[in-house]
Amino acid sequence: MVRVMRKKGIEHHPNFRAVKHVPFDQFIQLVAHAGCMIGNSSCGVREVGAFGTPVINLGTRQIGRETGENVLHVRDADTQDKILQALHLQFGKQYPCSKIYGDGNAVPRILKFLKSIDLQEPLQKKFCFPPVKENISQDIDHILETLSALAVDLGGTNLRVAIVSMKGEIVKKYTQFNPKTYEERINLILQMCVEAAAEAVKLNCRILGVGISTGGRVNPREGIVLHSTKLIQEWNSVDLRTPLSDTLHLPVWVDNDGNCAALAERKFGQGKGLENFVTLTTGTGIGGGIIHQHELIHGSSFCAAELGHLVVSLDGPDCSCGSHGCIEAYASGMALQREAKKLHDEDLLLVEGMSVLKDEAVSAVHLIQAAKLGNTKAQSILRTAGTALGLGVVNILHTINPSLVILSGVLASHYIHIVKDVIRQQALSSVQDVDVVVSDLVDPALLGAASMVLDYTTRRIC
């Protein structure tokens, strides 16, 4: 160590003094008045505690020894940032004097014990081990690590896995196309989660559990997808909890994607602190979640908040659920794509400033673009879709009477003004003051999946 310090020029630095030997009486004075001791000496875990001086113990040499609360361990001692962080935390603190290794009265106790022994009697050697106390020292890795969740979002197109912190920050995200078969899908989920868990260690994130958001009807108590939408094939009666828990050795939560969006709003979004609110998700399909008295409503058969299948017309278009006239049949991304294809087939979609490549699939994006560029037929379709969604919101207001309705998803901003107009025209006066807003969360499905883990963990800690 002396050679290394000399190479660094420490002997010529005004803030350092290199000393090969310090007499014991001077050493004790230095220890008593130091802002911090750093190193791996046994003195740091024994004598220094008697003065309450902060200690940063580097490396693994002293592992297993009982230490006082003045000791902060930095086991990965060659990581410079951790040592620096430890110095910021420890330097200049004053801890209570520790008496773990004695209070200065050892000699009188030993004499008292020896006097109590009858030396005339033959003595049998006995072993007596004192009870092991819980170690009250700290570890820099535990202080700096981020409590996090693994969040999984199973969509119709993509499969996403993310490391999400307690504050709702997406630390890292992984995206793959969602396979078409059960075997490929479950294997890919396991593979992505294992990779994310390994990466979390490098990022100093402590994974508390796994939360999964998926389309379809879910039994969250058992962690089973009962049956799914047509967008996710081979996804009925699927036990997601068991294989993930067995592989990762972590607790696993599973819920419907609409419910997860509501949970995300409750923990990180505009529903935070509200007792009653409803979230409507607008994307490839239409879904939702209901928070009542701060709790998520699942229903007796886990079918609550299937808000996309509220019927708003007796003779409306066919819906993917097998019925017709549902909100989803009008306002979902699939419904808008269907109408866009009809217009395109009749050469009524494209206007000046628009083009569709030969191999490009016509989608809802093209319909919205056409409406923005003045295509009256596209505008009429969007207005009808927004009106259907608005009627659904009116039914929700009349049935549940929430204090807030949150529109979430990629289509929310295109519908918000139409929905508010429908409420003004169709809703009872007593619910017209209920606010309807667009979510400001970027990834509600992932954040909602993470919140299932983080909320449970927070309750356990508190």
Query: Which outline best applies?
Result: elongated
Overall pLDDT level: 89
Estimated radius of gyration: 32 Å
Number of strands: 17
- Structural class, by secondary structure, is alpha/beta
Strand content: 15-25%
Q: Please report the number of helical segments.
A: 15
- Largest sheet report: 5 strands, mixed
Low-confidence stretches: none
Cα end-to-end separation: 45 Å
Q: Give the strand line-up of the largest sheet.
A: 7-6-5-8-12
Query: What percent of the residues sit in helical stretches (DSSP H or I)?
Result: 25-40%
Describe this structure in words.
37% of the residues lie in helices and 19% in strands. By secondary structure, the chain is an alpha/beta fold. The chain has a domain of 90 residues. The strands form four sheets. A five-stranded mixed sheet has the order 7-6-5-8-12, with helices on both faces. Helix 7 packs parallel to helix 8, helix 9 crosses helix 15 and helix 13 packs across helix 14. The longest helix is centred in the last third of the chain and has 24 residues. The protein is elongated, with a radius of gyration of 32 Å. The model has no long low-confidence stretch (mean pLDDT 89). GO terms for molecular function: N-acylmannosamine kinase activity; UDP-N-acetylglucosamine 2-epimerase activity. Pfam families: Epimerase_2, ROK. This is Bifunctional UDP-N-acetylglucosamine 2-epimerase/N-acetylmannosamine kinase.
